[in-house]
Amino acid sequence: MSGEPRSARTLAAWALPCLPMAGLNLPLVVYLPEYYASELGLSLAAVGATFLMVRLLDIGFDPFIGGVMDATRSPIGRFKFWFLISVPLMVASSYALFMAKPGVTSGYLLFWLVVVYASASISTLAQLAWGSVLSGDYNQRSRIYGWWQAGNVVGIILVLTLPAVLPLLGVGGHAAGVRAMGWFIVILAPLTIAYATWRVPEPDAGAAQAKPGLADYLNLFRQPNVVRLLLADFLIGAGPAITGALFFFFFERVKGFQKDTASLLLLIYFVGGLIGAPLWAWLATRFGKHRTLAASNVLYAAATVGALAIPPGSVPMGALLMFLIGVPYAAGAFLLRAMMADVGDEVRLQAGKDQTGLLYALLSGTLKIGSAIAVGVAFPLLQALGFDARHGGGSGGLEGLKWLFVLAPAALALAASWLIVNFPLTAERHAQIRRHLDAEAAAAGDPHAVH
To answer: Which of 243, 301, 367, 442 could disulfide-link to 413, CB 3.0 to 4.6 Å?
Structure first.
């Protein structure tokens, strides 16, 4: 069963909830921090501190809920059960955050960020862990998470088109675009998650296992391959998060683009990601996930530095560079998650227990740390450099913005490439692990021991 490919229809249904989930995750990094600072009246420092605080709190929630998922058994499955639970939390918090009016307080933002990040943690962990048990084959996992990445990019593209479409319908303004993003999530989240849980099977997890204790968490950090993936995920996630948080400031203040044109460039960036996803998935089957990932990071670093060469107001050059940056952007997220599925098999062989949910919780945690740094450190740093979110900044503030936008993501990507290029869990090594797991399952007479 582990090597049987899932149909494209099944994987499309499984990836469908990525549309509203991406519609939530992108604005949380790119639109909402800037929107609450420039439109709703909160200071840059207040917005940065609030997002940082909630992200740090959320990091502790992930391992808890991941361990609970591993121990959950229900008639519909352990991961689908939690996927459904995330829906009402996501709908309520998205409505509150995206429909907020001027005059909101930091307390209001803090409360609803806590709820929305909890819902995002539950839904993301449930979907990613569910994907890891759809196949145990090394190359099939690249295909599965390639669908996941494509779903995310399509969701992002759809969300980004909303501000451009609304004026054609007679609705204008930045606030209207943000509210439209909120409605996108509120409507699609319950529909797509319900359809996925109905249409896509979840293999039986077998007998219930005890909820993990502190020793189980600590033991994972003694696994070299786990630690290496977590560090790589932090580095790869932090770069685009910094780019996203500073995107509109950079293109409006440094490069002289209007906000609607900058939104178009952001859309082109994700179109590049959509085109890149199947390319990187194919390269991973030819050269291995780790080598493909390392190469994508080098390309991402080079293209990001190239953004400095965009002439002010030049849409063709801006579009070309943003497309080139977007193509390698797609690789990191889904290849790391496919690699973590392989590491999950290695951990299961060594520890004798399934810790899939916990592993993906740790992986989500490193991404959240990177995103927290993007807003929680970059925004206050910009303010310290003299940058004014409402009225522009002096030359010092703009110079700091320019170099922070390109050099920090490029350096992080190159560090990740160095870290991952010699990753030891290759296709050959993973095949050996699967054979051992299958042999143990056959000896125990337990058909559910391996998925």
So the answer is: 301
